[in-house]
Amino acid sequence: MVQHSIIKSCCKSVVVIATLLLLITEGYSAEPSPVEKKTSIQPAKNITIKDYPGDLGTSLIIEWELSEDDQNDPKKSFVIAYEVYRKTEKTEYKFLSQVTYQKNFYRDQECEPDKKYWYQVIAIGKNNLQSIPLESLNPGIPILQWFDSRRGWIGILMLFSCSLVVYFIWIARKGKKLKIRKIAGLDAVEEAVGRATEMGSSCLFVPGILDVNDIQTIAGITILSHVAEVTAEYETDMIVPTCRSLVMTMAREAVETAYLSAGKPDAYNEDDIYYLTDEQFGYVAGIQGTMVRDKPAACFYMGAFYAESLLLAETGNSIGAIQIAGTAMPSQLPFFVAACDYTLIGEELFAASAYLSGEPDQLGSLKGQDYGKLLCAALIIIGCTFATLSSLANHYQWGTGMESSFSSIQTYVSENILGEKGFRP
Amino acid sequence: MKRTVPLIICSLTGFILIISWFLPAAESWGEKVTHWFDIVAAFAFVLGGANLLKIHLQKISNRRIGWGYSAVTLTAFLVTLLAGLFKINVNPSMNYPAYSWSGNYLDEGGLLWWIYEYLFVPLSATLFAMLAFYITSAAFRAFRAKNIEASILLFTAFLILLGRTYAGSLITSGLPDSLAFLRFENLTIIIMSVFNLAGSRAITIGIALGVVTTSLKLLLAVDRSYLGSD
Amino acid sequence: MFEKLNSLESRWIFLMTFLAVGIPILLQKSLPEKPTPMVMDVFNLVEDLPSGSLILCSFDFDPASAGELQPMAAAFVRHCALKKHKIVFMTLWPVGPPMIQNNINILKKEFPDYQYGEDYVNLGYRTGGEGVIKLITTSLDKMYSEDVNGTSLKKLSLTKDLKHIQGIDLLVNISAGTPGVIEWVQYASTPFNIKTVVGCTGVTAPKNYTYIPKQLAGMLGAIKGAAEYEKASIIQYPQLAENPQAQEGLRRMAPQLVAHLLLIFLIILGNVLHFVGRRKGLSS
Asked: For residue A35, what pLDDT is reported?
């Protein structure tokens, strides 16, 4: 009996020790890289070759299913890359490129239209392991396309928005009165120039730091021409330091014409519009120096601004100038709002020219822009509604039909209308 | 004529480029136009440089107030230009040691590199650093809880200011994991990636439409004020 | 007292800011930062890549923003070197080459085994902004046939087989503006599904949130992001704790903390003055 119990406890101890040993060995064996054990890796699967849409027949897309040894977590993944090879009817397979793990496509952009290409994909593992090659059975043939169907919906939306603008310009030309809301910053232009005149001081206009190929600079220059008309009428000096030579040339043209139309061509001095430097902070330092020395009573900042926005606005504030700013750089708006008396926020900068000129043509364009905004809002609401319905249908099991139709509408809006697919199914 | 020709060029180029965006065969046209612009802008540097010389030489010769600054500007301009143009003190490239001008104009040891490293870098950094001072004074002056919206903004600003420092983590570190989203550093991320993002997108959509309208006005020559309205 | 405070001149505020930033800098104190999940996402992406992965670093910033972005760039470069990744440097900004050189100097000094041409290559600057990105996604040769020293890329072992950047394992973009994050996302990350992480200034960070997590795998925002990345690196590689150069971002968090507290104090003070003034019938 005693012997039996001794044997039993011995057996138990052996089992415990064996289990512990097993655990320890398993614990240790989990540490070294699993690759060391691996002698082969699984190849990629199901290779497909598609023509890249909307190009001149120079690209093919090669897609494959990831190898079973390709894991999202690189520590666990045996596959580190895929090598893509290509052959034609006349040549053998040649190395094309290598793509990283977890990537299941490659775009070959060195093809010729209507030529046949075959591809081979080899999964590459750690320690130079290679899978067996995965070959495409059917060739891919790049096709030349004259119209980029991916951009079809964008084209329609663009045509629609532009037609709205053109339509309202036409309506305005026919004499229909269009209302426009008050923009305090633009109403204050005259007040600012008037104050500068009363104080016998000058105005300063900064048209941003980008070149004439930026639409914000153009918007800034159109505002400059209106401000120049006011300064010409009040016979107040206006200084325009520019960051780009071409902006200087354009600003001179605009101001000269404004002085001419105000009937004060003699008051125009081209040296008041001058080039400082292309360098951002050099430009800021130059303007700050002018501000501190000349103490302009009114400062306008209209155009594209980066970090210099607050530097300029605070310097303007310190000299007690009335300041009006306008930019379409969302990250700089808070600085202008904090430091300036009036700020044109984003689209208001582009509306300024229409507002200041009061020309029916331009006001009509603003109305068209508002309808464009309505269209955007409608698309957002449609997208959100269907995304919500699709999610609810999925959650409350409304039925697969309903769920899939909501989801397909949502997918179509996001992928085809707003995304890359365009007219493609 | 002075207005009409530029307007025709603007309209024609603009519409061709819009159409080319939909035609793969014409896709490279946009890049070509960008290159043309770069070339024109490069020539315009000469115009800018000449204007700089003219304005400051006038100021110096007329002994106008602050002419000393003009003298400093001109000296700095000319020294930097010559240092870069003639690669003063630049060692030849290792690949072409026989050619004394083969080195990169900004190579270590050259005069331009010296100007860049010891003048340009500290001056740029100083001006950028001035933002810290200006932000503080602007915040003190302008950040007022004048109404409910401004108060919400103020409260959010406090959360972000604390969430971006160790103080924020320290204050809310005691919160249990189930309430981890209320920790300042996590609240900061939520505010930035949800509320701030939504507002920012709305402004961006407005800006995009403004850009479309302005571009169309320029292409249709409805707005000619940038060339001086007639 | 109220009158004095209400008409407090900017110079006193500037002095307070100077002291709030200057004293912690002189004291060289660093705070115990804890990496946030977003920073850990970025860190893990670099960390989990197999050694020898190819990383493209585009440093699109200038000396002005280097104070905010250089610690971030340095932390990335150190981490890549510790993981023995291969690095290709480039910049879209004309004043960017010295920014690259600063980081190459780190490699030369702290990782002497890292060989130019084999472990890293400096492509330097090319003009054209997004045009450069478009071209190098198709053909590197069209834009960069040689490196910054004029050596043909075909002669360098790291780049001799590199036809374009579609095959890279990770794109790291440190950017202070345009061209930068948006251009890389639009012309490289999205169309070619290139894994991308970015580092940016605090001001530009909000708009980059739009791209996370679909187009961007992660983002480091401002000096706080750099400090957290440094902390994550120190946790993983404790030897970095002995390298003061590897803690630039962490050291800058103390001045940031004091400056933020000062900012909060001044905003509260401003509001107190505003309400007291309103009660007294004055405009502040």
From this structure: 43
